[in-house]
Amino acid sequence: MNTQTPPSGADVAGSALFKKFLAKAENYLRQPTLLRKLLLDAYTKAQQKNELGSLAHEAWTTLQTLFRLIRASVAGDYTGVPGTTVAAAVAVLIYFISPIDLIPDFIPVVGLVDDMALIAWFSLTIKTEIDKFHEWELTRPSEVAAAPKPAPAAHDDLVPSSGSAKYGGTVTAPHAGVAAATTDSSRDASHGTVATGGNVR
Question: What segment(s) does the record annotate as region Disordered (predicted)?
Answer without folding.
Answer: 144-166, 178-201
